[in-house]
Specification:
Largest sheet: 3 strands, antiparallel
Number of strands: 11
Distance between the termini: 8 Å
CATH superfamily of the largest domain: 4'-phosphopantetheinyl transferase domain
CATH class of the largest domain: Alpha Beta
Order of helices and strands: EHHHEEEEEHHHEEEEE
Structural class: alpha+beta
Number of domains: 2
Shape: globular
Length: 217
């Protein structure tokens, strides 16, 4: 679910947040960053509340070793898993029942160290694909790869402790999103699938989910 993080009604959104979420919001130095956090967190609660038929303000969360959020009791038995990402003025919320899920969204922008990041973090196959891409398309190729890799490691719940070189994703703007290799397995039999889409003009987003079928609805 893409969400525009527009200014306004922030006070109403604050009422849905827990004390620890409000404290986290107030630690942001930038008013815009504070607004984005409050609006996206309130939207997450509203969406989960709708899916669970529950008051959004009553939801509580646990956090994994690497910070991945999950529903806490009594809703932890629902099987509902979720993930959130935001960039610029857009947030993305993904949810699935009975399957781990991860999502990433980026607003592509010039990066002076882009090639160095590719060499450091991308796999050998991804390096070959990126540097084989025409220069005019390399920014798009970079963010294709980055969002797809980020979505998968968020689904795994391991954060950047999981080696990014352990799997390959499609990179070229001419190719559809795909998980090509996961550790020593081919992507289609790895138990994970990957899809990508454009949630708004200029943005790049990816979703990774446990299973053999990915669909964005």
């Amino acid at each position: 679910m893409p969400l525009q993080l527009f200014p306004g009604v922030v006070a109403d959104h604050r009422q849905l947040l827990s004390a620890d979420e409000l404290a986290r919001a107030d630690r942001f130095q930038s008013a815009d960053d504070r607004r984005r956090f409050i609006v996206s967190r309130a939207a997450l609660r509203s969406r989960l509340g709708l899916l669970l038929d529950a008051d959004p303000a009553t939801l509580s969360f646990d956090y994994g070793q690497h910070g991945k959020p999950a529903l806490a009791a009594p809703f932890s038995d629902s099987g509902l898993q979720f993930n959130v990402s935001h960039s610029g003025e857009l947030a993305l919320i993904a949810a699935a029942r009975g399957a781990s899920i991860g999502v990433d969204i980026e607003l592509p922008r010039p990066l002076t160290d882009r090639d160095a990041l590719v060499r450091r973090y991308f796999s050998r196959a991804e390096n070959i694909a990126y540097f084989s891409t025409p220069a005019a398309e390399q920014q798009q190729a970079f963010f294709n790869c980055w969002t797809r890799k980020e979505a998968l490691i968020k689904a795994l719940g391991r954060g950047l402790s999981y080696p990014l070189r352990n799997f390959d994703v499609s990179v070229s703007p001419a190719m559809p999103a795909n998980l090509l290799r996961f550790e020593l397995q081919k992507g289609p039999v790895s138990g994970w699938c990957l899809t990508a889409f454009e949630p708004a003009a200029g943005y790049v987003a990816a979703v990774a989910v446990q299973g053999t079928h990915c669909a964005v609805a």
